[in-house]
Amino acid sequence: xxxxxxxxxxxxxxxxxxxxxxxxxxxxxxxxxNSIDAEATIIKIELQNGGLKLIKVTDNGKGMDEKDALxxxxxxxxxxxxxxxxxxxxxTLGFRGEALPSIASVSELEMYTCNKDVGTHILIKxxxxxxxxxxxxxIGTSISVSNLFYNTPARLKYLKSEQSELGNTVAFIEKLSFxxxxxxxxxxxxxxxxxxxxxxxxxxxxxxxIYGLNVSSKMMELSVKNDDYEVEGYICKPEILKSNKNxxxxxxxxxxxxxxxxxxxxxxxxxRYKPDIKYPVAVIKIETDPTLIDVNIHPTxxxxxxxxxDELCNMLISSIKDILQKExxxxxxxxxxxxxxxxxxxxxxxxxxxxxxEASLPKNLNEDIQIELNLNINEKETPYKEITKxxxxxxxxxxxxxxxxxxxxxxxxxxIVAQTEDGLYLIDQHAAEERVNYEKVTKEFENQDxxxxxxxxxxxxxxSTSDFIKIKRHLNILEDMGFKIEEFGLNTYxxxxxxxxxxxxxxVEIINNIFxxxxxxxxxxxxxxxxxxxxxxxxxxxxxxxxxxxxMEAMERIIEDLMxxxxxxxCAHGRPSIIKFSNYDLxxxxxxxxx
Length: 595
Ligand code: ZN
Ligand code: ZN
Hints:
Layout: H1 2-20, H2 24-37, E1 42-48, E2 54-59, H3 66-71, H4 87-92, H5 99-105, E3 108-114, E4 119-125, E5 128-135, E6 140-146, H6 153-156, H7 162-179, E7 184-189, E8 192-196, H8 203-211, H9 213-216, E9 219-225, E10 229-236, E11 248-252, E12 255-257, H10 260-268, E13 282-288, E14 293-294, E15 305-306, H11 309-326, H12 333-339, H13 352-360, H14 398-402, E16 406-411, E17 415-420, E18 423-428, H15 429-447, E19 452-462, H16 465-473, H17 475-481, E20 484-487, E21 492-499, H18 507-521, H19 527-542, H20 552-563, E22 578-582, H21 583-589
Parallel strand pairs: 1-7, 11-13
Antiparallel strand pairs: 1-2, 2-6, 3-4, 3-6, 4-5, 7-8, 9-10, 10-13, 11-12, 14-15, 16-17, 17-18, 18-22, 19-21, 20-21
Helix pairs in contact: 1-5, 2-7, 10-11, 13-18, 15-19, 15-20
The structure holds zinc ion (2 copies).
């Protein structure tokens, strides 16, 4: 009888392992979270081959006696249920008490732990207790997991390469150290330290320890709250934007979460301060009543659901926008050089809209390539309709306005050279004027009707029945864009009027592409982004090119107009419009100062 029970339990553990343990990082996660529960202040994670060979976590937490140590490897061991006031905490770790026995069932696990004088040494192989003896361990716990999945070949093959497994663990520990700046983490792979934090309990210092000075010196503090949520943390200046989203960390009630809406809100707040393909660095801590958090989420996903999400996101967006608006965001030429990645002129990528754009706009859209839209936007009668929900109250950037930029001249036919008491500024004349025009045209788009034109011969588009129905459901999108569209016989639409920016000779192609993306994404077709792209293109075309001689008056006018911009720091595509050489930088370069 006893044996049968043990067997079934071991089997259950193996099955649970499949649920809870997917990769080396999940083992690290479980072990490190146990260390945090044990109130450790120093946690060391040692890996061999990214964890494929060995994962060892050592902490200075309170350790266990023999009884607790053995209990930890039984399923449903409840001794670890901690703060009962924190429902969320227990529930997101749903398999708490199951993960450790699960890991032990699919690996060789060795533990040294001690909470008083006598320590305990336990060795478990494939779920079977091999050794249980006293040891002379010091206070704390050390757990080594080797040969993960050695007895479950089917799972083993899901483990990735060393680099990939290591990458996951590094990302996890980095984010965890933001959630716990009070804990010193050290992650070592093959005897080389990969991550190390000091446990200073200072978030900015931790950001510095993880991302380095280039990032930490460009972070801006955020602190805002409403009745339900308290938000604190750091967001980056646009000059250090990254090419992927992995540098946004959100922490809810002390736990790192991955929440699509939160990430999206943080990213969207930078709209118009960055190209679409760039993402901010942010560490955001959210505190809330645990009852506002939905607990029914699978534990291996770090996602959560929260009530009053819209309020939270809106608060987050407006506070980030507020900070961006107030700060002076001119990148310093010298430091910027090291951190600024080249920005391509692709405003929209990975977006259904992109397909439309690919057809409607020239490939490899370059700043200085003539863009062949029909651009009559300058004409005063241009009737534009309200088509974006963005608020159109433009507030001049106060800090930028305070700069008393004095134009000295033009360099290379492309840059306006200006100075203040603090340093020397180079302004990209095209980028600057494009920004000015972009904000102007945006307002026109927001305030007026879209200019449309009638087709000489109506354009007919025939579709499959299902596509025809999908378009029918979203005709409003097309109408809002300025298309006059009617049903015309079986599965066919006829278009008698279209927005005038459609490139002549390419109308059918562009319309087909717009149809395709509406069919594909329906209501999610992002009109704001689409319009934004059109506006940026128009602004680009309206603006002075590089390699154009400008008079002092013309340059002063550009600077004056730039002063009035909501976001004077980059062109419509996210390229910087102004950079600074501070007096100090210049003195340093000329060795007038030595450090
Ligand atoms: Zn341009
Ligand atoms: Zn541009």
